[in-house]
Amino acid sequence: MSPRVHLILSQKGGVGKTTLAVNLAAVVAQTLGSDPAEPTVLVASIDPQASAVWWAERTNLDTLPFDFEQMDDDSDEVAKLNGRDEYEHIFVDAPGSLARPTVLARAMDAATDVVVPMNLEPLAYAPTEKTVLDLVKPRNLPYRVVRNIWDRRDGRSELDATTKWLDEQQLLYTNTVVRRFKMHTTASAEGRVCTQYPPGRTAAEATNDFLHLALELGYGGRSS
Ligand SMILES: Nc1ncnc2c1ncn2[C@@H]1O[C@H](COP(=O)(O)OP(=O)(O)O)[C@@H](O)[C@H]1O
Ligand SMILES: [Mg+2]
């Protein structure tokens, strides 16, 4: 059976593409069903700059609950992702900008759905809309915007403003909001994923956002 290929995409850097790609992969692999000895989840990075450096330098790939591959700009591996039948779910971490149109087009061709993370500042509005209108809609791919890095200590005003804006633009978004946890920032700097957090209430809450998100997006289990 063909894998489902989830493309994590935004024209804006720093909105959480890498964070969502690896943590969604982690919860899907570990919590929602995958044999750790034979991972059925793959994270494919097509962002040669940021992610490769980050992962290669900090992550012990053996300890991750999913497989990880860095894919070159000029290879056709990306176009072949939906033929990788050994996987059920493939999360594609897109580049931080749209500077790589060829590899991005291949990823769009292989994708079965698109996740567009955004943070809650007005600076993120235009690039989010442009990502959906220019890239996702022309291909008729199912997509959801995900509101990310909500800091509860700031209250609801930015969250509500962002939600209102999404409604006005008639953009589709998940009910699940991914909150800001310092733990996520620290973990990404260390190359860890949320299923590797130390036990405790905060870690459970932080991980839960990704679990909720994965379930809402329908990523649980085999071909749900
Ligand atoms: N929910 C979150 N809570 C805390 N920090 C986050 C969260 N999402 C992303 N970050 C941090 O924000 C920064 C940018 O995230 P990243 O995933 O690298 O974005 P992108 O891949 O879109 O450039 C990183 O330092 C990351 O750790
Ligand atoms: Mg990134």
N- and C-termini, Cα separation: 13 Å
Number of domains: 1
What name does the CATH topology carry? Rossmann fold
Largest sheet: 7 strands, parallel
Bound molecules: adenosine-5'-diphosphate, magnesium ion
Walk me through the structure.
By secondary structure, this protein is α/β, with parallel strands linked by helices. The protein has one domain (4-216): 3-Layer(aba) Sandwich (Rossmann fold), CATH 3.40.50. The chain contains seven helices and seven strands; from the N terminus they run E-H-E-H-E-E-H-E-H-E-H-E-H-H. Strands 3-2-4-1-5-6-7 form a seven-stranded parallel beta sheet, sandwiched between helices. It is globular and about 45 Å long. The model has no long low-confidence stretch (mean pLDDT 89). The protein binds adenosine-5'-diphosphate and magnesium ion. The site of adenosine-5'-diphosphate has 16 residues, from helix 1, strand 6 and helix 6.
What structural keywords apply?
224 residues, alpha/beta, Rossmann fold, 7 helices, 7 strands, binds magnesium ion
Please describe the topology of this protein:
Elements lengths: L3 E5 L8 H14 L10 E5 L4 H9 L8 E4 L18 E5 L7 H10 L2 E6 L6 H12 L6 E8 L6 H13 L8 E2 L2 H9 L10 H16 L8
Bound molecules: adenosine-5'-diphosphate and magnesium ion.
